[in-house]
Write a structure and sequence with these properties.
Strand order of the largest sheet: 1-4
Radius of gyration: 20 Å
Number of strands: 8
Order of helices and strands: HHHHHHHHHHHEEEEHHEEEE
CATH architecture: Orthogonal Bundle
Number of helices: 13
Largest sheet: 2 strands, antiparallel
Distance between the termini: 47 Å
Structural class: mainly alpha
Length: 331
């Protein structure tokens, strides 16, 4: 916080509402329409590359590429900057929620902070350039927005970009990876989706997010006294929101451990559960997943994962490190 300011995800009223209004207004109909077309184009290109190169790891070749390329295109990040940004994203998130020994902490102190600082400096400079010469991308819209005389300054822009990169890329990448694994392990659900993709795609995306729960937990402090299920909580108390538990709540979901793309209703909390902190990227993440799975299932119906995903032992997110895959006729 001292270095980078408050992230949108950590703010409360009234600062949260003010910042969210600026960000929301930047998503103009023109930008959203261009993004929808870009999502389809990127999904097609990724599957083109996959079918040509037949990579062994689904995460690196497919799941990671989709959200990263979409957000870079949306923000207007120059191609030459992208390899560096991807490296910084990996450094910033690699140890999130992962236990480290004392030796590891001493050897690489502040590695994640340095990666965030590098990203923030780069995007702040882009913001200064786009303020002078707008190019029609999201960064231009954010720094030139005029909501009650306010727009994002360089620090706020950097914080928002870091949130998009670390949170938006990681969560969608993990949902895609887990989704491919679930559709391999449940051939009946895969066949149902493939038989009528337009009918079942929305339900499949919701069930993948519920079942895999890309974010496991968030720690918070209560902003006011509250009583829940007979328990009294006080303002300032530390609490943990366990998304993974909520998404398998037997009082809400029938047979909660079953993967069922026809599940309805499906009131999971994967995108924040509604309210003022409902994820701004929900619509985009769903678009990405639907476009990519449409390409994957219709153009490579024999594609499957081989074994369980290799997970990172994180208590924060359900992160997939790698996931081997196989194609028609073998690897």
């Amino acid at each position: 916080r001292a270095l980078f300011g408050e992230s949108l995800v950590n703010l409360d009223e009234p600062q949260h509402t003010q910042l969210r209004r600026i960000v929301s207004r930047a998503f103009t109909p023109r930008i959203l329409a261009a993004t929808e077309e870009d999502v389809r184009s990127v999904a097609t290109r990724i599957v083109d590359d996959m079918l040509r190169e037949r990579p062994a790891d689904f995460v690196t070749a497919v799941a990671s590429r989709m959200p990263f390329e979409i957000i870079c295109n949306l923000m207007g990040i120059p191609e030459k900057e992208r390899p560096s940004i991807l490296a910084q994203v990996n450094r910033a998130s690699v140890e999130t929620g992962v236990a480290r020994t004392v030796r590891q902490r001493i050897r690489v102190p502040g590695k994640g902070l340095r990666a965030l600082a590098s990203m923030q400096g780069m995007v702040a400079e882009l913001g200064r350039q786009r303020r002078r010469n707008p190019t029609g991308d999201l960064i231009s819209a954010l720094v030139n927005a005029d909501i009650d005389g306010q727009s994002l300054n360089g620090r706020q822009l950097g914080s928002f970009f870091s949130l998009l990169m670390v949170a938006g890329v990681e969560t969608t990448r993990n949902a895609i990876a887990h989704g491919m694994s679930l559709l391999t392990d449940h051939p009946d659900q895969r066949a149902l989706l493939l038989d009528d993709f337009d009918r079942y795609a929305d339900g499949a995306v919701e069930e993948i997010v519920r079942h895999s729960t890309p974010i496991i937990q968030f720690r918070r402090r209560l902003t006011r006294d509250h009583r829940l299920n007979g328990h009294d909580f006080r303002r300032g108390d530390r609490v943990v929101l366990f998304y993974a538990s909520a998404n398998r709540d037997e009082s809400v979901f029938t047979d909660p451990d079953r993967f069922d793309i026809t599940r309805s209703p499906n009131p999971h909390v994967g995108y924040g559960g509604g309210g003022p902190h409902y994820c701004l990227g929900t619509f985009l993440a769903k678009q990405e997943m639907k476009a990519l799975f449409r390409e994957l299932l219709t153009r490579s119906p024999e594609l499957r994962t081989v074994g369980a995903p290799v997970l990172v032992p994180s208590n924060f997110d359900n992160r997939v490190r790698s996931m081997p895959c196989a194609y028609a006729g073998g690897r």
